[in-house]
Amino acid sequence: MNNYLAVDIGASSGRVIWGTLQEGVLRLQEIHRFNNGFIEKEGHFYWDIENLLRQIIQGLQQAKRLGVEECTLGIDTWAVDYVLVGSSGERIGEVYSYRDPRTDRAANLLHQKISFQELYAKTGIQQLSFNTLYQLSVHEQEELRKAEQIMLVPDYLHYRLTGISKSEVTNASTTQMLNLHTQDYDVDLLALLGLQRNQFPALVQPGFRLGPIREELVQAYHLPRCELICAATHDTASAVLGVPARGESWGYLSSGTWSLIGVERKQPLTSHLAMESNYTNEWGAFGTYRFLKNVMGMWLIQQVRKEYDNAYSFAELAELATAAEPFRSLIPCNDDRFLNPPNMTEAIRSFCAQTGQPVPNTPGEIARCIFDSLALSYDAYVREIEKMTGENLEELHIVGGGSNNEFLCQLSADLLGKDIEAGPTESTVLGNLAIQMIADGAIRDIQEARAIIRHSFAIRTYKPRPVDPNMLAEQRTKFHSLHFNRIN
Ligand code: LRH
User: Fold this and answer.
1) What does pTM read for this prediction?
2) What residues does ATP bind to (predicted)?
């Protein structure tokens, strides 16, 4: 029996999970969990990359204590953020978080040199203020000049563990610097930033065998013998691989800090409407594209929960929301004001006040406002995706931590009038492991992996309940009018 380890690091926590495949059943064991989050220093936000490395090492040590002598290992993290590496392999400067305010005006400035239309035609990537392209455009010139290599976070973790630097495509596509036509970094875009192609490692596909963990690390930390295999290193790419879908016409909602809502396609979709409505075409494993929309997801409730000093669990907040008056006040979840406000509860309340809506006061009212707004976003975007692709989505899968939120799953099913299949919560880890298992021949292909996931984990179906059509039309109109800005 082979041992597969997945390191999955999100914006708020990371895990090391041990996966095994026995008689066609995939089993997971969480062997290490740690917190993640950005550190604030003088008005800027950074990741603690050294701590992430330490935590991976600790997870590997724990695996060894549990009897794992040999394994493969795949790493996935959130997208877009990067590390600059100097000529002797040293890290240059801090690793900025994508929620750092330095990019507030970066897109506007860059669009004076190249229009968003041109950028979209090249890359098919949505405009998010924090795409790597925009981040690099405002990065300290001095540091950039010294950077021999620019690596995205998981590529850098690979590099530190193996000494090998590659640029894995699923995550690289989120830089907004890959050209859909040449299938490589776009040298003209790089030139706009004063960068060169050789500052970025060679692109590789998920499943690429990077090699063993460096011997000195194995010896110094008593690690198991581990071969690193590139997972789909963008967590959303892994999450979509882990969707237990059947057939062709399904959509997904990967629900974590972000809600990523979309479809898997064999071709990118860069129509005028897709561009205007700001849909993205992130690259997936096996030559697929994730045509999706980012929705400011559980981040909204995570922040509110912190502001109540974690006095309520997520389940309690959902329960309080259930008891609160429905559709009393709504927010445009994707508005930049909610990206990283000093206080989320206040940002929500002041938006409601400014727009003449009742101001939510209690935790239940705030949570209800967030969940109603999220469900209306899902409803609007699924319908928009169906319109743009010309396909009716027969199944909508909610995967990730948010698939545990019964209230939100049921509300989304009701508004959409569609069955929702919720689970597994661990789809990102499962997608990460699936790539390793396919790479070593234990699983034939992604269809087989999805079938295995489907029968290895509990999946719950939410059937839509009847909804008053007038109420639905009214709320949809209200939601639409709040999202006045098309680039959201
Ligand atoms: C989700 C995610 C998402 C990106 C964002 C930066 O964790 O990777 O797909 O847009 O973080």
Assistant:
1) 0.97
2) 11-15, 257, 302, 401
115 lies in some domain: yes
Is residue 429 one of the residues assigned to a domain?
A: no
State the binding site: 11-15, 79, 234-236, 257, 294, 302, 401
Mutate to test the pocket of ligand 1, among 8, 77, 80 (most ligand atoms within 8 A of CB): 80
Residue range 169-204, pLDDT digits in tens: 999 999 999 999 999 999 999 999 999 999 999 999
Beta strands in 234-349 (DSSP E): 250-255, 259-265, 280-283, 289-295
Q: Which of 8, 175, 260 to mutate to test the pocket of ligand 1 (most atoms within 8 A of CB)?
A: 260
- Picking from 173, 203, 235, the residue at the C-terminal end of a domain is 235
**What is the ipTM, given to two decimal places?**
0.98
DSSP 333-380: TTSGGGTS-S-HHHHHHHHHHHTTPPPP-SHHHHHHHHHHHHHHHHHH
Domain that holds residue 112: 4-235
- How far is it, in rounded angstroms, from Cα 82 to Cα 154? 9
d(CA 294, CA 234): 14
300 CA distance to ligand 1 middle (Å)? 14
Only one residue has tokens 């990460």, namely 432
Q: Which residues contact 23 (CB under 8 A, 6 or more apart)?
A: none
